[in-house]
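Researcher: Re-running this chain for the archive, since the previous output was lost when a drive failed. Same request as before.
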Amino acid sequence: KGDESRALFVPLQLAIVGIYPTPVWVAGIVRLLRVPDLRPVRALAVAYPVLCVLVLVTGGQPYYTAGLVLALFAAGATSVVGWMSGHTGRRVALAAAFGSSAGTTALAPWPAAGRV
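Model: Regenerated structure tokens:
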């Protein structure tokens, strides 16, 4: 069971947030590490890779990192807002990416629903 969790770790990390929004939480890590005003919460950016290593070493479940992913996503969202301001095309592209991600996430459990 532990080997299976390790093999699925990276794909499930991407599935937690979605493929398209992944750059937002990566931007959150970068922002937390670079912006001096965010020094009090910089530990969130350091805690994520540390927790990933711990989950992999112990054979834990990939969803154990979900709380940190959400915090990093929130930190990255402010960077994305700055990146989008004044650029309608960027807003449309981001809305399409998030809509696509939300749609695929909502439909993912459907085939399993009939087997319950």
